[in-house]
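Q: How do we represent a protein-ligand complex in a form that can be generated cell by cell?
A: Start from the inputs.
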Amino acid sequence: MIIHTISELRKIIKDWQKEGLSIGLVPTMGALHDGHKSLIEKSVSMCGKTVVSVFVNPIQFCPGEDLDKYPRTLIQDEILVNKAGGDVIFAPSPAEMYGEGHILSNDFLTYVVPPYFYTDKLCGKSRTGHFDGVCTVVNKLFNIVRPDFAFFGEKDRQQLIIIKKMVKDLNIPVEIVACPIVREKSGLALSSRNKYLNETQKTDALALSKILFNINDCFKKGIKDVNALKETAYGFLNENHDLEYLEFRDADNLEEKTVADLNTVVFIAVKTAGVRLIDNLKLG
Ligand code: PAF
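Then emit the C-alpha cells for the protein with pantoate bound:
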C-alpha cells in the first residue's frame, strides 16, 4: 500500500500502536535494490509493522548534483517492498514534506544541523550541507512515523554514524539498527546510483571494493601503518578514476587514524565516468 500524506499515515500508525505493534522504519530515496530489501527484511523480522519511506529529499542535494535525474521507480519499488514483507510505503511529495515552494524557501525551514566535526570530512567535504538535509528529513520522518526501530545501511556509514549521534544528542526514542553492505558477486556494493553505470563503467567501479578488500588483506597480514596501507591502493586506479578520498577513520567518532586497528573503517569515494561512488570496510 502506498500512502502519500502525513495525515493518512498517522491514522494507520495510531491503529497499529493501539494494537500494541512495534514499528520499524526503513528510510529510503527509492530506486530500491537488494540492499534495501535486506533492510526491509531485517525490519520485518524484528517489528510488528514496517514502513518504508520513499522520498528523494531535495534538501540533501547540493547545487549541481543529480536531484533531477535521481532514479524514481515507485512502481518497481512497491513490488520489492511487498516481496520483502513491508506493510506500507510512505511516498510524500516535496510539498507534503516541506510545504509549497519549499525549494525556494529553504531559508524558512528549521534544520537539524549535526556537529561540524562529523560533517567536515569524507562526503561532507564536497557535499556542503548534505548531512543537514539528511538529519532534517530523517528527524521529520521519525516524528511522522514514531518508529521503535529504524534501519540504515552501512553503505552510507558516515550518514549512519551521524544519525546515531543525532538520536543520542536529541534523545530521540528510536533504536538505530545498522545493516551490513550488500554486494554483487563481483564485490561492487549495491547502490541506487549504480543504475547510472554501463557495463564498462561497472568494471571501473570494481576498483573501490578491490582496494578495500586488498587493504584488509594487508592489514590481516600485519601492516598497520595507514600510509603504507594507502600506498597499496594506487595499483587499482587508472585514468578513468578520480579518487576523491581514501581515509582511515574511527568506526564510532570518525577521528582520523594513523595506525589501523580493529575499530578502523576505510572509507573511499571515487568518481568514474562522472558518477560518484562510495564504499567502506571495517578492518578485521
Ligand atoms: O540513505 C538515504 O537513502 C537517504 O540519505 C535517507 C536516509 C533516506 C534520507 O533521505
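Strands lie at 2-3, 23-28, 49-54, 88-90, 149-153, 175-179, 241-250, 264-272, 275-282. The chain has two domains: 2-179, 192-282.
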